[in-house]
Structure formats: structure tokens, C-alpha cells
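# step 3/5: fold
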Amino acid sequence: MLFSQLPVTIFKKIYPKAIFSLDKKNEIALTFDDGPTPIVTEYVLDVLHHYNIRATFFCVGQNIEQYEDLFEKILKKEHTIGNHTYSHVNGWKTKNKEYFDDIERTRHAFETNLFRPPYGKIRLSQYQHLVQQHYKIVFWNLISYDYHPKMDRKKCMNLLKKHTIGGQIVLFHDSQKSFGLISEILPEYIEFCQKLNLNFVPLKF
């Protein structure tokens, strides 16, 4: 299936100390990858503020440096920050030393123990090293596909509504290519979760 969800049970066996879900089934965590991005991140922050929600932003280091004021806005709203590498590198295609150096470069920009591998792609050796360095590696168990060119508002909302349950970590993106869908679905999805009596929480481990 084109829009199949992450096979969490398989990945848990490969990465047993990684985080895929929340412990409490009355909670849900919204996460946003690839920012901060002008206009897009600002929109997301405005929506979250309107609904009084705190979320988690997995930020790209070079974007943190390029858009310092926007990154500061995320911090001022008391959202949680995660490391998403400095240049959005694919772990499967990157030598370990280069991969670790890229991660550490972002760590110098902002100290956090949360890490999400771009594309969800990370070698077992990379995973093991980061665990030894006390990183909490965070995946997800529900993805919006807000970046996908074949996805539209109806498909996206149907997918999210079909698979949303308590205890989930939901993946969105505050990137330019996701802005079209994010601007259409984020308020609607938040209100859908509210009707399910789910509490929105930032990630803290």
C-alpha cells in the first residue's frame, strides 16, 4: 500500500530502546520535522497557540542557525526540541563518522537528548552508538504523509482519522513542501483528537 504505516513491531525488534509510542493511552504527541521554516513554522506555532497545545519540533541544525529568531519563538512557546541532524542526512547513505559529526553539529547549536533520524533511516551501528551517547531515539507510530505529492486533504484526514488512537506519536513536517497540506489539516486534526478526549503532550523522556 502506498500509504502504509510504519511496521512498528518489526522496528521495535531492531531498535529495542527506541521510542515509538507514549505510555498513557489518553495522550497523543504531535511532532514536526525539518524546520524551522519561515511562514510554515510560524503558522504551526500560531495554530498550536490557538489550541493551547505544546508539541515537539525535530529541528535541522542548519535551519536553527539560519533562522535563529524563529527557533527562539519555538523555545519561548515552551515546545520540546529534538535533534534532526544538521543537514538532514540519510543514515543509510552516510558513513558513521560523518553521520555522528552532523548530529553533534546540531547539538552544539542546541543541547537536547532527543533524536529522530531523517527519513527514519538509521543503521544499527549508528543506533547503538547514539544509545551509548544517551540519546533518546524517537520514531513515530502514525505518519501524516503531509509531504507526499499524491496526498491531498481528504486522503490525509481519512488516513489520520482511521489510524488515530491514544498513545501515539504523530509525524508532521513544518517544511515548505508540506505547507499546503499542513495549513489545511492541522486545525481539523487537532479538533478531531479533542473529540476523542486525547490530551496533547510534548515529548519528555
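# step 4/5: annotate
Strands lie at 27-33, 56-59, 80-83, 114-115, 136-137, 142-143, 168-173, 199-200.
# step 5/5: archive (pending)
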